[in-house]
Design goal:
The protein is an alpha+beta fold. The protein has eight helices and twelve strands. The strands form two sheets. It has a six-stranded mixed beta sheet, covered by helices on one side. Strands 7-8-9-11-10-12 form a six-stranded mixed beta sheet. A hairpin with a 5-residue loop joins strand 3 and strand 4. Helix 6 crosses helix 7 and helix 6 crosses helix 8.
């Protein structure tokens, strides 16, 4: 029997970690090790992709409004300034709460870009996923949507792409007509998506006198949901002080009922009578902001009544993200 000749493998050039592209989990690792990607460099990439970033919008102008538009506001848009300016063939970049057909982004016929905020993301870092979508939208063919994908673990984040000195000024809309500049030429699918979205939209108004506070109308009662930047424990102490003193409401018939946690921030919620509109709570909200600032400045231990109030607020807290 002939002696088997030893098998040799062709040598492959070794890549540095920074040069290794992201491939399918079962594909050979591009580094040349001969192992599958998921068992080689994909381990670190998977960990980076799935690790949850609790405050994905931290460091961006208007962090509280980013959270509100991601979780609370049905229809809104914001012009986004890029750190390096707009490409010549991109007249504008606009963040939108939702896009037709749940597209992650859309490059319009005129070259402008719409970036959707409320889509599901593949990793634990919304900022990195959105940045990847934005980069692809900037170079997409005009008139085409951008599809979802898993962002590279070492890709840029929004904080790397957006102008940190820019403003973030949401415009809240009553519906989603901003999707379609020319409704007569919209496809049936987009028109149907627009009708469904408009039917489900809850009337929402951003208060003018305080930051990141949004009034909304529901069939039984209205609400004010106010995204606040303060550390959670400090904010809950301050709210408990005001609640125990009977100073946490926004006027007659209103009530602080609890709070949400969303993307690392706390969102107190008030129930309002059905007849109380956004204009009616502008002044009470500004007055509450002054009371809250004083309560936040206090470092005195909570009294028994304040501790009970804090326990009640904590028990009614819901985590959205």
């Amino acid at each position: 029997m002939a002696k088997k000749r030893p098998q040799t493998r062709a040598t492959r050039p070794q890549l540095t970690d920074g040069e290794i592209p992201v491939v399918g989990a079962r594909e050979p690792c591009p580094c040349g090790s001969g192992r599958r990607y998921k068992a080689c460099h994909g381990r670190a990439a998977a960990h980076a992709v799935t690790e949850l970033v609790h405050r994905p919008f931290e460091g961006l102008p208007g962090e509280c409004d980013w959270v509100a538009l991601r979780e609370l506001v049905p229809a809104a848009t914001v012009e986004l300034p890029l750190k390096d300016g707009l490409p010549e063939d991109v007249p504008s970049v606009t963040l939108a709460t939702v896009l037709p057909m749940a597209w992650p982004a859309l490059r319009r016929d005129d070259g402008s870009v719409l970036l959707g905020l409320q889509n599901d993301t593949a990793s634990g870092d919304i900022s990195r996923d959105l940045a990847d979508t934005l980069q692809r939208a900037l170079t997409a063919e005009p008139g085409t949507p951008v599809q979802a994908r898993r962002a590279p673990a070492d890709g840029p984040r929004l904080q790397d792409l957006l102008d940190a000195e820019g403003t973030f000024e949401p415009v809240v809309h009553s519906g989603f007509e901003f999707w379609i500049p020319d409704t007569e030429n919209a496809t049936p699918e987009v028109t149907a998506s627009l009708e469904r979205a408009n039917a489900a939209a809850i009337p929402t108004v951003k208060l003018a006198g305080v930051g990141a506070a949004y009034w909304c109308e529901t069939p039984e009662k209205n609400h004010l949901r106010w995204v606040m930047p303060h550390p959670e424990e400090q904010l809950l102490d301050a709210l408990a002080r005001l609640h125990a003193a009977g100073r946490s409401s926004l006027g007659e018939g209103t009530r602080l009922v609890g709070s949400f946690r969303a993307h690392g921030l706390t969102v107190p919620v008030w129930d309002l009578p059905s007849g109380v509109g956004a204009d009616d709570v502008e002044k009470p909200a500004a007055e509450f902001a002054e009371r809250l600032a004083a309560a936040l400045a206090s470092d005195a231990p909570l009294t028994p009544e304040e501790r009970r109030a804090r326990g009640g607020l904590t028990n009614r807290q819901v985590t959205l993200s």
